[in-house]
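Attaching the record inline, Q. Sequence:
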Amino acid sequence: MCSKCGRDDPLPSGTNTQPEPSTAHGHAHIHSHAHAPAHHHHHHHGHGTPSAAEMNAEYYDREAANYENMPGARELLKDIAIKMRESATFDASTTRVLDFACGIGMLSRELAPYAKSIVGVDISPVSVAIYNHKANGLGATDKMRAVALDLQKTSGELKEQTFDIVVCSMAWHHFDDPDTYTKILARFLAPGGKLLVVDHMGKPAGEGTLPMPDSLKGVVPQIQGFSDDRMKEMFDSAGLVDMRYRKAFRVPLPIPDMPHLTEEERTADLFLAEGTRPTQKL
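Structure, as predicted:
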């Protein structure tokens, strides 16, 4: 990144920023409006309505390079990383982390000093290319790398792997089926491992939802946020125990394409939810 202007260094010439047909979907999100990480590009097959995953892939392939410079994005990710480290035990010599919907790696880079290894997964190949380029620039490729996968379709090279901590930041509202993603992520946890999710809290009935630009319609299926009860329902059905849900922040979110919004209109309460994979079958 250029220290003078704050812009990211360009990808090296020859870097393919177009998705490869074989690396479909991942899912990564922290998108603009509370997102900092990424998403990926996808061509729809057939003539049906594109899925939320496909729409996120396309949106984040297009916008990935802009994320780091969105006002408030870096600060938000730093704060999220601190809260996650308070909620789970990170050990730089042993902890294996899966960063789901990792985007361009902003959260991974904050957590990397406290983990043995981090694998990022995103549905956006462009985001993954930027993630790996940045890891290379930091000389951290032995510690962090990302892959473009749609875990609803395949676990790819992650097939037999388990992790001590799985994190997902500001992506839950991008999922058309968060129940299924909860189950998928729970399966990647080692016994005793923790799933940590940060997203925005549901607003009381009648108070409306977060403002949403037209550019994100379809990219964000879950505009209502997630309550304690809703997260507990998903964690329980995925077999996770010792679930905790707490308000973590009240912050103005970086919402793209809506420069007229006041700080108050962009402000949302974010929760951190955690659940643990049992060390033995109940």
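The CA atoms of residues 98 and 166 lie 5 Å apart. Residues 69-276 form a domain with the Rossmann fold fold (CATH 3.40.50.150).

More tomorrow.
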